[in-house]
Predict the 3D structure of the following.
Amino acid sequence: MSSIDLPGSKPPRRIPWDSLAVLPFVIFAVMFLFLPTLSLMGAAFTDRAGNFTLDNIAGLFTDQIMAAYWISIRISGASAILGALIGLAITLAIIRGKLPQGLRSAVMTFSGVASNFAGVPLAFAFIATLGRLGLVTIVIRTLFDFDIYRQGGFNLFSFWGLTLTYLYFQIPLMVLTIAPAVDGLKKEWNEAAQTLGANAWQFWRYIGFPILWPSVLGTLSLLFANAFGAIATAWALTGSNLNIVTVLLYNQIRGDALQNPGLGAALALGMIVITSLANVIYLVVAARAERWMK
């Protein structure tokens, strides 16, 4: 016999099958994000004997560690700003410019690959290209009798060398992230501005860039966080020559003769705080930017 729902009775509870689709992601986030973060926080406030201590947090304010944080922030900021400017120019050219339509697919495909190409292979590629015996270095020296290291002052294993290397994945990431916002600029806005007598510069000055600005600022925060957490590329390229916080963290946990896992956990906790702030800025600004894209 079929069941009859009595007046006022609650309908039977059904299994939210749609919610089960995100269950693997929730399990993955808990196991590989939240639990390790909690473990890291515990280790940052624990000494070698397992007792509570604030010495690890106090150790973050030494001159060496503060200098490491500062140079990491500078490299992340420089690569983020340059990557955002160059990536925005490329995106505007392929989407709103008069370049061939097929070029957009090629650029977007390359950006999808290059934005994930990092680590040791990327460092080796730049050493083989712009190292002291790199292909481009030798070609310039042979054809123009100009040594970019001795006469030009260039050094791949320095601040600007690492920043240049980061740009390889920062620019494509900017292209991929800002492309939907550029696509969202409606043609009707440009047509209305032209009807009112505005030229191209006035359209971008008063309409285009103010609308894109929240998306650009949000993506800038994302690029900063992306560069701030990179370690494999920096380690393979510069080793310990450049005192950035990710390399210092690696040394404290595994490579340093005077390793201090508690201080390493505190270093990682400080990085989490900085990258979290950058990601919060991105989420807040991105939510604001979506209002214009609807």
Remarks:
- Residues 90 and 198 are 24 Å apart (CA to CA).
- The chain has one domain: 62-290.
